[in-house]
Each structure stands twice: as structure tokens, then as C-alpha cells.
């Protein structure tokens, strides 16, 4: 029976080396000094330093008590090592000369040798690409652990990775790759496995050291003999030519037979666990010339016939292996002569391998190529080594992958925010074709927002904010964003998309007239912000009285306001604190001018609050701010003009052109995006506090934007506890009952209000339905839901033209928003995801001509929000920072 593991690779014989070819060998002496190439005198193998294969880690030498001359038998490559104190996963990248799919043998060696002076044995894992190869554990400091694996390469490069399990710093002493003949070490067809060496024995040889320089595959054969065996051998050449396994001469020349000729030749081994699978390769060659005598035997595993009968040919090598893996803990091989044989069975050599299922495929090669390009192009310094997606728990930082059962993992998310990227946006991003989320915010990227980004068909989220990009976002992306299929975050200067600025004629230009003015505004805002910060501090120290509004930039004089509004001719709305007028800028841009009534002190505070917020919060689904006027008692806010008025009017029965189900979903998605941005995109998060249909404005293109931040409140971010406020604000019907009762405000209050908006979109009813007596929309819809009466729930004006499952799902979302307890309500992010699915359902249901909204559509008045409460509040807005 075999006991123990491989005899340590301590070479005692200094064999004179005949020039070995070493074709395709990669022999790395890990941790050796740069440019230190040497030939190992024992094996004749040329070793190279590891710098070309690894970019992380540090070089170390084992401590002198384990090194030469104290340890004269030490194989040279083991005297130094590379350790990896940083990062969970560190990898060597090997590029075999042979093509992808070729078979090779890899061997990693480890000798701790108290290199760090800590005298503490580490424990770590070794991975081949994304698959666990071996767990490395030492018995003592002079243990040489050598592990070998036979595997076919699945890509052009091979990663050997050391993974830190928290049990000490991983290191490696030597790494070797040997190409093999592709037709050997075959296993069951179609099952991708690699073979980890369990035992490799040269049977019947006792004098050798194990490593034979005539093994073209450079395997290490451990001499083995048993007291119940007799050694037989030959000094003749043995023909190996027809046997691809090519056991070296010294190995195949010697063999063992049972001492008692009638006995069986047996060996057994025990695996660590019941599920272990083994492949056994037995080498046979007849070495005794026996006239008129027959050697003939069968081989069985655990009592069942594995192979036989076999008559070994004189001086010809043969290799027998099991075609189906041996599974189990205890394994017993028996070689026994057949009845017609008069010579005992023989065994020349044996290899036992444990099969490792290659469950984890390496990442899709084009994704890898692209992300490696990105790594190189931007000098990404995130410890990106080895396979990007694997092993699963050790994906590259900033990367997310989608794993499927039989296909290579795909990169679906790349987060390179604040990673110091500079230069233009690389075309390689467009090569990660499954990408769903791309975050390149807060870098120094410049140049245009490239057209090729539209090739990312799965993209659902893209953040380019905080860069110096010029030009506009590709039209297709803008369209997808409008369709609610993509969440786009870009800087102001990239917002004016070619879609909304150039394409459409006679369109009311919504945001800012030109890129130039956007830039001016941007610069102005920065100056403003600086100035303001100073002023705020001064104001605070002077009792907060008479706080001036930000700067004189982008500020309009009262005379200008008069001019813009043509003497306040066109009233388009009235709010609780003032009147809203339509206006025209000099360049023709239509705007909405909100005049603050001079008498209202509350209004004044709101004015300041709103101005502060508007200047810092930018999102395509939030109403855009153009400027303001602050001249004594004349205070005005100037917004983009929203041609289609507010959602409340649009939904009302007055509207002759009812919104289609698809449009309703798109509007809901836009509004949800705006809110999601306030909640999750701003630091600290902002609670709107007055989400309602009257505050959702519709652009000429029917893009929805959330307006009126008069009541908005930023909540301190570190203290995420609910904010307690003294005065409840909001609009009846939309007001979160929990907030109303507890006075505790959090984002979920907006979620409740949004749920009401969604119910209104679904049903076409008002938040408070006034019939004989007033009934709240949630109470109206609940019994209908119980009766599963979707026909009565959905707005009758749709005449049943909607996907029923999409409507049900939207309804579920609305109900998940309006749950009494805020804890049970969904977040805006979840809501957004779900609504996108609703839209997808509707789109696949109704692939007919998508209704495009055009000029003929009813244009409602611009209605400023009615603020229900007129009570004064004394909060001061914490300055939010757009991310
Ligand atoms: C290890 O030892 C070699 C030679 O003895 C020396 O050249 C090398 O600098 C040492 N490496 C380290 C990391 O100390
Ligand atoms: C691989 O082994 C087979 C026999 O198994 C042999 O025919 C073939 O020539 C070998 N290939 C190489 C490249 O040695
Ligand atoms: C050989 O084994 C057989 C049966 O196992 C036994 O009867 C015989 O005595 C053994 N011979 C020797 C020499 O031990
Ligand atoms: C060889 O075997 C045959 C029959 O099996 C026998 O007749 C002959 O004598 C044997 N020769 C030797 C040299 O043992
Ligand atoms: C193999 O046989 C041994 C006894 O001979 C038994 O203990 C073991 O469980 C068997 N293993 C399997 C996998 O059947
Ligand atoms: C050896 O295997 C063959 C089948 O290949 C079988 O017919 C024969 O009986 C076996 N011999 C012994 C001694 O079990
Ligand atoms: C990955 O992590 C999970 C949870 O931490 C753990 O259960 C699992 O075993 C890990 N998988 C691997 C391959 O390490
Ligand atoms: C992952 O891939 C599968 C199959 O390609 C796909 O069905 C699934 O939606 C993907 N999941 C994600 C989160 O992208
Ligand atoms: C990217 O990472 C940053 C910081 O780790 C995080 O704040 C941000 O939300 C991430 N972006 C995405 C899209 O997940
Ligand atoms: C993108 O992938 C294609 C192959 O699919 C390759 O030819 C091209 O060079 C790649 N481009 C970049 C920029 O990585």
C-alpha cells in the first residue's frame, strides 16, 4: 500500500546533463533576481526569473538555515520565492507556445524556509485560471510541496493564481510548464477535467532520485518498491515509440513481480473524500525473456475487471488506464495472472491522478482582451491580474460578471469611477458587448463622448459625470435613455444631445440654448459655489440674516426679467408663493419664470432653497435651471420651459389625447429616474417631499422631469437616521401616512408619493377621488385588486390597449410603494428596475408602430406646484453635492 505523499524533491545526485531540448518548456524560478538565468545542474533545465510573468509581489530568499550550504541537497530554484502580501489574488500569466487547446503539465513548488523570519507556516489556495487546483498547506518549514496538474489550455494564456485565504501570505518558489502529447492522459470523452497528480511511481527502482532527465515531459517519478515484491529489470532499450506516454527508460526498464509467483500484485490508496475521482495510468513492458512461458494477467479495481487479459510485449511499453473515473474513498487495484499463465503479473510504473472538474470557464476571451486593453491604456492600478471573472469570489475590483452554466462568464459591469483615467474613451469599452453598467465618473477623460458606445446594446446604466468630455451623447443612447432603457448620467455640457438640440426643428429647446452657454453656466456655477461657500459661512456667523443669493453670474436683472417675460404677459401657472410666466430668452429659448411674491416670507425661503438645490442638482429627469433674478424684492427663478405642461393636467379628463400605456410607463420611469437620482445620486440624499403629478413636467418630447424643489430637503448622510421635523409638508393624497403620524422623514416618503403618482398613471384617477364622498386612490384600487379586476383598474381611456401582465406588474410596484410601513416599501432603485421590466413586457407585447408624440399633442399650461402648507419652517438646507 502506498503511504504518504511524494518524496520531497531534494535532489542528491548531480547528474551530468546531456543537452535536453526543453522545447516549449517554461521554467520559472520565482523570486529570483532580475536577469538571473541559470541551468539547474541536476536536471539540466534552464530557469528564468519571474518578472516577465508576474507584476505583483516581492522577492524573498529562504532563511540561511534552510539554504545552501546548510542544505546541500536543495534544488536551486527553491532557495528563493515570491511572496504576495498585497491583494487577495495574485497571478502568473503564462503563454504556452502551443496552440489553445493543447495539453500541458504544470508544476508549482513551494518551500517556506522561514523566508519572512516569522516561523509561521501560511496556508493558501492555488488556482489554475478560475478553477481550484490545490490548497497549499505545510507540515514544517522545510517541507517542499510540489503539486502538478495536467490540463488543456482553454485560452492563449494560462493564469496560475495564488489566493490569500486569510491564513498567511501566499508565496511560490518555482513554476514549470511542460507541453504534453495531446493524445495522452485521455479521460472520459466530453468531460472537461484536469488531472492533479496524486502519486507517480517508478516501480521496482530504488536507486534513483526521481527526476529523470530523459523524460521528455519532465515528470518526477518517485522510486517505489514493496517488501512483498521482487524487482525485475532489463538493461536493453525499451521501445517507447508507439506509446505516447513516453515513460523514461530508467522508469520503464525496472518493474516488480510478486515475490510468491501465485500472488497478486496489489496496491491501494485512500482519498480525502467520497466524491474523489481518480484516473490510474499503469505502465507495462516485458523485461524478462522467458521461452515457452506465458505472462498474462487481468487488472481489477475493487473486485471488478478493469482490463484484461493483457500480455506485455517484450521490450515494448504499453500504458493501461481506466476510461471511466474511479469514484470513492477507498481504492484497491489488483493485477492477477490468468489461469493459462505461468508467470506472475508485472508492473513497471504507475501514475494516479485525481480528476478536477473544470466547472469554471475562463471569462469570454473578447471581454478579456478588451478589459486588458483598458487596463493597459489607462494604467489601471487595481491589482487586475488573472482571469477577470474567476474564481467567482475573486473577480477584478470594479468588475461584475454574469456566470452561466456552460458558457464563459461575461463582464456585465465595469466601475472605474475615480480611478484617475485620462485621455479619450477607448474603443475597447465597446468590445465588452454584454456590458450593462459602465461607470467612468470622476476621472479626467477628455475628447468626445464616442459614437461607438451605442454598440453596447445591453447597456442599462452609464455614468460619465465628472470628466472633461466634450460633444454630446450619441443620439441612439439618448433615445434609449428616453425610452427608459438606459440610465444616463452625463455632465451638463454633454447633456445637450444631438438628439434634442440639432435633430428637431421648431422645437422648444429645453435645456440651455447652446453648449457655450452651458459652459458659461458651468463655470458660473463653480464660481458661485466657491463664493457661496464663503458667504454661507459669513452669513452663518452673522445670524443667518439677509443671506444673499449666489453671485451675480447667470443672474438676471429685473429689467431683463421684464424683457424675457414681455412684461409678465403670459401667465402659465400660479403657485402658493407666486406666479409663473412664460418667457423668451434673447436667443429664442422659451423659459418659465417663477416670480416670488414679495409679501411671502415663506416663499422667500423656498426661493432660496430651490435656487441652492437647482444649482447643484443636474439630471435629465429633473427640471433644468437657467438662472434667477434677485433684485431687492424682485426675486425670480428661470427654468426650462416644459412644452407639455404637467402630468396632472395631461392625465386629467380634459385632455383629449390620452396617454398610451407605453407612454405612461415611460413617464413613470423618467420620474422614477429623477427621484432615484435625488435619493441615491446626491450626497447627501435629497428628499423631494412633494412628489405629485402636478410636479412632474412633460417636455416637448414627452420626457418627464421632476420639478419644484421648494420643499426638498437634503438629509445628512452620515447620520442616516430619519429626520424629525416639526411641520409636515406635502400634498393631501400624496402624503405618506407614516411620515404624517411620526414626523419622521426618509426617502420612503417620496416612494409613497411616487406610488400614488403611479396609481394615477395606471388608473387615470386622481389621488383623491371625489365622488359622493372622497376616497383615496389606494382605497379605491385595493378591492379591485382583490377581485383581480384589471379591466376596471386600468384607465378606461386606454380601451384595453395594454399588456395585462405589464399592467399587473406596474400595479404591484405601485402597491409596493404605498405600503403603510415605510420599511416595507421598495426603494426607488428597485422601482426603476421593475418599471423597466413593465416597459419591456409592454414593448414585446405591442411591437406595432410606436406612438411618437408630435406637435398636434395637447399642450397644457405650465402649472407651478401648489404648495399645500403655508406654515413656516426653519430648516436650512444642507448643501447637496451631485455625484
Ligand atoms: C537572494 O540571494 C541572492 C544571492 O544570494 C541575492 O542576489 C538576492 O538579492 C537575494 N534576494 C533578496 C530578495 O534578498
Ligand atoms: C503523440 O502520441 C501518438 C501515439 O500515442 C503518436 O502517434 C504521435 O506521433 C505523438 N505526437 C507527438 C507530437 O509526439
Ligand atoms: C505462495 O502462496 C500460496 C497461496 O497464496 C501458498 O500456498 C504458498 O505457500 C506460497 N508460497 C510461498 C513460497 O510462500
Ligand atoms: C515448450 O512447451 C511445449 C508444450 O507446451 C513442450 O512440448 C516443450 O517441451 C516445451 N519446451 C521447453 C524447452 O520447455
Ligand atoms: C473498494 O473496496 C474496499 C474494500 O475492498 C471498500 O472498503 C471500498 O469502499 C470500495 N470502494 C468503492 C469506491 O467501492
Ligand atoms: C480475465 O478477464 C477475462 C475477460 O477479459 C476473463 O474471461 C477471464 O476469466 C479473466 N481471468 C481471471 C483469472 O479472472
Ligand atoms: C465564495 O464565497 C462564499 C461566501 O463567502 C463561500 O460560501 C464560497 O465557498 C466561496 N467560494 C469559493 C470558491 O471560495
Ligand atoms: C446572464 O446571462 C444569462 C444567459 O446569457 C441571461 O439570461 C441573464 O439575463 C444574464 N443576467 C444578467 C444579470 O445579465
Ligand atoms: C462604482 O463604485 C463606487 C465606489 O465604489 C460606487 O459609489 C458607485 O455606486 C459604483 N457605481 C455603480 C454603477 O455601481
Ligand atoms: C475589438 O474586438 C475586435 C475583435 O472582435 C478586434 O478586432 C478589435 O481590435 C477590438 N478593438 C479594440 C479597441 O479592442
From TrEMBL:
Q: Which Gene3D superfamilies match?
A: Galactose-binding lectin (2.60.120.430), Phosphorylase Kinase, domain 1 (3.30.200.20), Ribonuclease Inhibitor (3.80.10.10), Transferase(Phosphotransferase) domain 1 (1.10.510.10)
Listed under catalytic activity are: L-threonyl-[protein] + ATP = O-phospho-L-threonyl-[protein] + ADP + H(+); L-seryl-[protein] + ATP = O-phospho-L-seryl-[protein] + ADP + H(+)
Q: Which residues cross the membrane?
A: 507-529
List, for all copies, the residue spans of the domain called Protein kinase.
Answer: 566-839
Signal peptide residues on this chain, from the entry's feature table: 1-19
- List the molecular function annotations (GO) for this entry: ATP binding; protein serine/threonine kinase activity
Q: What keywords were assigned to this record?
A: ATP-binding, Kinase, Leucine-rich repeat, Membrane, Nucleotide-binding, Phosphoprotein, Receptor, Repeat, Serine/threonine-protein kinase, Signal, Transferase, Transmembrane, Transmembrane helix
This enzyme's EC code(s): 2.7.11.1
Task: Write down the membrane topology.
Answer: Single-pass membrane protein
**Which coarse location class describes where this protein primarily resides?**
membrane
What compartments host this protein? Membrane
| InterPro entries referenced in this protein's UniProt entry, alphabetically | Kinase-like_dom_sf (IPR011009), Leu-rich_rpt (IPR001611), LRR_dom_sf (IPR032675), Malectin-like_Carb-bd_dom (IPR024788), Prot_kinase_dom (IPR000719), Protein_kinase_ATP_BS (IPR017441), Ser-Thr/Tyr_kinase_cat_dom (IPR001245), Ser/Thr_kinase_AS (IPR008271)
Q: What SMART domains does the annotation carry?
A: S_TKc
Positions annotated to bind ATP = 594
Q: Which GO terms describe its cellular component?
A: membrane
The protein's name in its UniProt record = non-specific serine/threonine protein kinase
Look up and give the organism this protein is from: Gossypium hirsutum (Upland cotton)
Amino acid at each position: 500500500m502506498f503511504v504518504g505523499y511524494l518524496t520531497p524533491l531534494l535532489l542528491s545526485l548531480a547528474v551530468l546533463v546531456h543537452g535536453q531540448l526543453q522545447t516549449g518548456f517554461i521554467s520559472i524560478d520565482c523570486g529570483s533576481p532580475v536577469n538571473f538565468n541559470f541551468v539547474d545542474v541536476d536536471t539540466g533545465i534552464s530557469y528564468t526569473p519571474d518578472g516577465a510573468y508576474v507584476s505583483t509581489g516581492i522577492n524573498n530568499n529562504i532563511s540561511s538555515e534552510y539554504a545552501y550550504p546548510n542544505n546541500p541537497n536543495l534544488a536551486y530554484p527553491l532557495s528563493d520565492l515570491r511572496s504576495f502580501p498585497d491583494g487577495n489574488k495574485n497571478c502568473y500569466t503564462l503563454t504556452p507556445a502551443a496552440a489553445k487547446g493543447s495539453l500541458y503539465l504544470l508544476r508549482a513548488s513551494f518551500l517556506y524556509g522561514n523566508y519572512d523570519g516569522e516561523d509561521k507556516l501560511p496556508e493558501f489556495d492555488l488556482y489554475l485560471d478560475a478553477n481550484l487546483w490545490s490548497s497549499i498547506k505545510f507540515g514544517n518549514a522545510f517541507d517542499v510541496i510540489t503539486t502538478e496538474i495536467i490540463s488543456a489550455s482553454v485560452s492563449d494564456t494560462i493564469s496560475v493564481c495564488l489566493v490569500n485565504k486569510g491564513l498567511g501570505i501566499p508565496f511560490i518558489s518555482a513554476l514549470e510548464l511542460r507541453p504534453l502529447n495531446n493524445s495522452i492522459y485521455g479521460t472520459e470523452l466530453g468531460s472537461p477535467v484536469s488531472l492533479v497528480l496524486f502519486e507517480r511511481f517508478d516501480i521496482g527502482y530504488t536507486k534513483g532520485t526521481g527526476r529523470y532527465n530523459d523524460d521528455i515531459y519532465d515528470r518526477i517519478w518517485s522510486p517505489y518498491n514493496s517488501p512483498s515484491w521482487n524487482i525485475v529489470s532489463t538493461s536493453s532499450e525499451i521501445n517507447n515509440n508507439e506509446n505516447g506516454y513516453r515513460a523514461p527508460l530508467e522508469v520503464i526498464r525496472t518493474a516488480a513481480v510478486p515475490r510468491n509467483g501465485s500472488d497478486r500484485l496489489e496496491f491501494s490508496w485512500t482519498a480525502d473524500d467520497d466524491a474523489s475521482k481518480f484516473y490510474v495510468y499503469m505502465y507495462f513492458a516485458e523485461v524478462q525473456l522467458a521461452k515457452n512461458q506465458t505472462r498474462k494477467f487481468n487488472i481489477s479495481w475493487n473486485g471488478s475487471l478493469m482490463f484484461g487479459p493483457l500480455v506485455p510485449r517484450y521490450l515494448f511499453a504499453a500504458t493501461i488506464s481506466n476510461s471511466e473515473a474511479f469514484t470513492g474513498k477507498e481504492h484497491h487495484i489488483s493485477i492477477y495472472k490468468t489461469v493459462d499463465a505461468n508467470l506472475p503479473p508485472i508492473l513497471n510504473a504507475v501514475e494516479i491522478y485525481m480528476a478536477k472538474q473544470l466547472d469554471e470557464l475562463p471569462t469570454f476571451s473578447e471581454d478579456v482582451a478588451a478589459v486588458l486593453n483598458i487596463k493597459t491604456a489607462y494604467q489601471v492600478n487595481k491589482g487586475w491580474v488573472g482571469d477577470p471573472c474567476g474564481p467567482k469570489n475573486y473577480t477584478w475590483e470594479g468588475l461584475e460578471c454574469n456566470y452561466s452554466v456552460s458558457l464563459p462568464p461575461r463582464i456585465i459591469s465595469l466601475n472605474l469611477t475615480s480611478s484617475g483615467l485620462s485621455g479619450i474613451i477607448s474603443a475597447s469599452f465597446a468590445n465588452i458587448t454584454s456590458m450593462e453598467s459602465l461607470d467612468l465618473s470622476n476621472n479626467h477623460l477628455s475628447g468626445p463622448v464616442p459614437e461607438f458606445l451605442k454598440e453596447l446594446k445591453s447597456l442599462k446604466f452609464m455614468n460619465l459625470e465628472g470628466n472633461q468630455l466634450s460633444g454630446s451623447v450619441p443620439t441612439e443612447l439618448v433615445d434609449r435613455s428616453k425610452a427608459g432603457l438606459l440610465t444616463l448620467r452625463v455632465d451638463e455640457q454633454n447633456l445637450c444631445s444631438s438628439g434634442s438640440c440639432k435633430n428637431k426643428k421648431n422645437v422648444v429647446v429645453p435645456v440651455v440654448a447652446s453648449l457655450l452657454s452651458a459652459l458659461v453656466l458651468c463655470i458660473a456655477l463653480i464660481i458661485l459655489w466657491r463664493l457661496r461657500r464663503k458667504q454661507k459661512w459669513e452669513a452663518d456667523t452673522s445670524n443667518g440674516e439677509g443671506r444673499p443669493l449666489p453671485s451675480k453670474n447667470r443672474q438676471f436683472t429685473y429689467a431683463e426679467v421684464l424683457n424675457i417675460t414681455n412684461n409678465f404677459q403670459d401667465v402659465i401657472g400660479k403657485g402658493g408663493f407666486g406666479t409663473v410666466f412664460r418667457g423668451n430668452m434673447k436667443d429664442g429659448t422659451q423659459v418659465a419664470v417663477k416670480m416670488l411674491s414679495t409679501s411671502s416670507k415663506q416663499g422667500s425661503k423656498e426661493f432660496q432653497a430651490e435656487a441652492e438645490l437647482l444649482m447643484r442638482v443636474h439630471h435629465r429627469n429633473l427640471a433644468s435651471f437657467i438662472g434667477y433674478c434677485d433684485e431687492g424684492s424682485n426675486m425670480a427663478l428661470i427654468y426650462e420651459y416644459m412644452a407639455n405642461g404637467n402630468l396632472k393636467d395631461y392625465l386629467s379628463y380634459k385632455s383629449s389625447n390620452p396617454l398610451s400605456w407605453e407612454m405612461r410607463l415611460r413617464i413613470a420611469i423618467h420620474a422614477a429616474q429623477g427621484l432615484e437620482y435625488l435619493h441615491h445620486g446626491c450626497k447627501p440624499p435629497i428628499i423631494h417631499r412633494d412628489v405629485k403629478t402636478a410636479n412632474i413636467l412633460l417636455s416637448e418630447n414627452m420626457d418627464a422631469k421632476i420639478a419644484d424643489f421648494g420643499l426638498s430637503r437634503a438629509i445628512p448622510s452620515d447620520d442616516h437616521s430619519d429626520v424629525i421635523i416639526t411641520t409636515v409638508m406635502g400634498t393631501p393624497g400624496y402624503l405618506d401616512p407614516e411620515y404624517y403620524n411620526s414626523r419622521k422623514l426618509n426617502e420612503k416618503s417620496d416612494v409613497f408619493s411616487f406610488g400614488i403618482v403611479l396609481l394615477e398613471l395606471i388608473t387615470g384617477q386622481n389621488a383623491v377621488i371625489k365622488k359622493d364622498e372622497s376616497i383615496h386612490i389606494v382605497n379605491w384600487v385595493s378591492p379591485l385588486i382583490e377581485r383581480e379586476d384589471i379591466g376596471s383598474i386600468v384607465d378606461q381611456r386606454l380601451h384595453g390597449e395594454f399588456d395585462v401582465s405589464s399592467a399587473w406588474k406596474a400595479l404591484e410596484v405601485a402597491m409596493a410603494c404605498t405600503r403603510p410601513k415605510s420599511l416595507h416599501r421598495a426603494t426607488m432603485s428597485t422601482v426603476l428596475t421593475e418599471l423597466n421590466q413593465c416597459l419591456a413586457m409592454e414593448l414585446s407585447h405591442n411591437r406595432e408602430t410606436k406612438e411618437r408624440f408630435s406637435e398636434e399633442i395637447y399642450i397644457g399650461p405650465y402649472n407651478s406646484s401648489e404648495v399645500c402648507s403655508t406654515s413656516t419652517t426653519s430648516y436650512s438646507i444642507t448643501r447637496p453635492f451631485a455625484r
